[in-house]
Amino acid sequence: MTARIIIAAALLFVLAAPVHGSNVVVGVVNLQANSISELSVSGSPAPLTVNSAVAGEEPTAVSDSTTRYSFTTNGTNLKITVRIDSNTETGTALMIAFKKPDSTWTSDLLLTSSTVDAVTGLTKIKGKNLDLRYTFSATVDAGEIDTTTRTVFFTLTN
User: Fold this and answer.
1) What are the start-end ranges of the E strands in 4-115?
2) Where would you tag: which of 19, 82, 110, 140 has the fewest CB atoms within 10 A of its CB?
C-alpha cells in the first residue's frame, strides 16, 4: 500500500510541476460552412426517334436513360427545376423523369419552356450519378418532323 501512495504522489508531482523553459503559443482557428448547392448533369441521350407503331395505335414512344445527374446541398428544402428552351411541335411531347436518392422515380414531367419542379424537399442531402429518363412521343397528327434540338435547363434552387 505504501508503494502505491509513493507512486501516486510521484505521478502527481510530475503532472503538476511547471515545465521550466517551455514556450506556449496559442493559435486561433475560425471555422465556417457556407451554403452549398451544386448540381451537374452528364451525358446526353441518344437521338429520340419515333419510328414505329402497332397497327391501329398511336406511334410508340421512345425513351433513353443514359443521362446522369449529381447534386450536393447542405441547405434546407431545396428543389431541382427543369425546362426547355422552346416547346416541342404540336402533337409531340418530351417528358423527363428523375431517379431520386432513395431509388424511387419522379413521375414523368412534361418539358415545356415553363419551369417545372422536378425533385423537391432536398435538405442536407447528396446524390451521385442518378438516372434521368427522357421520353419522346408523337401522335399521328404530328406527321413527319425533321430533326430538331431542345436545350434542357436544370436548376438547384429554393
Assistant:
1) 37-42, 62-73, 78-84, 92-98, 109-110
2) 19
